[in-house]
Amino acid sequence: MVEPGDRPRRFASVDALRGITVAAMLLVNNPGDWAHVYPWLRHAPWHGFTPTDLVFPLFLFVVGASISLGLAPRADAGMQTAELRRAVLLRAVRIVALGLVLHALAYWLLPRGDFRPWGVLQRIGICYGVAGLLALHATARTQWAAIAALLLGYWVLLASYGGFEPEVNLASRVDTALLGSMVYQFDPASGRGHEPEGLLSTFPAIATTLLGVRAGEWLRHARTLRLWAMGAALLLLGGLWSLLLPLNKNLWTPSYVLWSGGWAALALATCHALIDRRHWPALGRRFGANAITAYAGSAAMVYALSAAGCWEPLYRVGFAQWMTPRWGPHLPSLAFATTFVLTWWVIVYAMDRRGLRLRI
Q1: Residue 72 binned pLDDT confidence (cut-offs 50, 70, 90)
Q2: Would you call 192 helix, strand, or coil by DSSP?
Q3: Does residue 299 carry a pLDDT above 80?
Q4: Residue 264: helix, strand or coil by DSSP?
């Protein structure tokens, strides 16, 4: 057993960065009006990269860092590998199950055509499980080899079968063949579709998480110069690779893995320098302490308010009617999303004050 004094050290910087990422997820996922969203709060339509395209890989990168910071100290303190492995797998299953429950709730409450099996939480759970097992059983060299194999193998598959264009690429074709109309986007006329969190594109997402595992290990051993170097190297490699292989979040292309991983490493290094070392306020920490709760709870709130017919009137009466004549349609849409984030900040603040941390 691990004694209380042997519990893993919590890095406020990691909690803060995780929380900032979750807050960003809520902000970009819940505008008042999808027709009027500022460009920097939108994903790139296909190829390309916007600040919003950094949010999900940044979260997976932090998941990887948290794996290193959580598992390795417990192993060092004498916790059995079998017990740690069981904990990793059970948590991965619970996260995937929560994602399925949320999609079942959306299917039940909202007018949707089909149940969607894939999703954000499902991808997080799978990446957590695979990266956690590799963190337990593989050496650093093997983890780097796994990252290289995942990225190069995925590149070869995409380049060899269909290329990188919408719907005809291999990832989209595999997901559509497996799930048909249950993918995120589906055209009944052509029988083609696309799933941004689908099967094949989860493999490079695992590589993103493993980059976070390596970063977390360096953070744990105070090798922060390696974090800065990692960020710069990944940005350089990702930028060069993007000349051959476009940056694409929908396909989670290998160049996108390296480019977003570089920014994520620099973000973690910056937060560590400012929060852990210079003791700046850990903004976002309360979101980070209950990250999955905030994400899942906010989604359930959106589904419930939409099903009750309250979502649109809240935006129209509370924001659009009086703000649009003064400032145009984009600002009220952003103000609504910001208010939604602040509402959930109040919730997680109250939870944190009471010491409530709901773990999945």
Answers
A1: confident
A2: strand
A3: yes
A4: helix
Output the DSSP codes for 90-152: HHHHHHHHHHHHHHHHHHHHS--SS-----HHHHHHHHHHHHHHHHHHS-HHHHHHHHHHHHH
Q: How many CA atoms lie within 13 A of 294 on its CB side?
A: 34
| Alpha-carbon span 249 to 260, nearest angstrom | 10
DSSP state of 50: -
For residue 208, what are the CA distances in angstroms to 10, 33, 77, 130?
22, 31, 28, 12
Q: Is the dihedral of CA 302, 305, 308, 310 positive or negative?
A: negative
Which residue type occupies 86?
R
Please state at what angle helix 224-241 crosses helix 202-220, rounded to 10 degrees. Answer: 150
pTM for the model stands at 0.94
Q: Read off the pLDDT of residues 197-235 as tens digits, 9 standing for 90 and up.
A: 999 999 999 999 999 999 999 999 999 999 999 999 999
Q: Which of 219, 334, 256, 198 is nearest to 48 (CA)?
A: 256
What end-to-end distance do the CA atoms of the chain give, in Å?
21
Residue 27 burial by CB count (10 A; 0-12/13-18/19+): exposed, middle or buried? Answer: middle
φ, ψ for residue 186 (rounded to 5)?
A: -145, 135
**Bridge partners, 187 (sequence order):** 192
Q: Which amino acid is located at 187 in the chain?
A: D
- Tokens coding 91: 């948590």
Element (H, E) at 194: strand 192-194
Helix 12-29 × helix 55-76 angle, to 10°: 150
Residue 185, SS3?
strand
The backbone torsions φ and ψ at residue 82, rounded to the nearest 5 degrees and listed phi first, read -60, -40
Per the listing, tokens 């190829």 go with 47
Q: Give the pLDDT mean for 340-356.
A: 93
Report helix, strand or coil for 187: strand
Give the CA-trace dihedral at 96, 64, 67, 121, to 10 degrees: -10
Token code pair at residue 195? 């799933």
What is the C-alpha separation between 210 and 128, in angstroms, rounded? 9
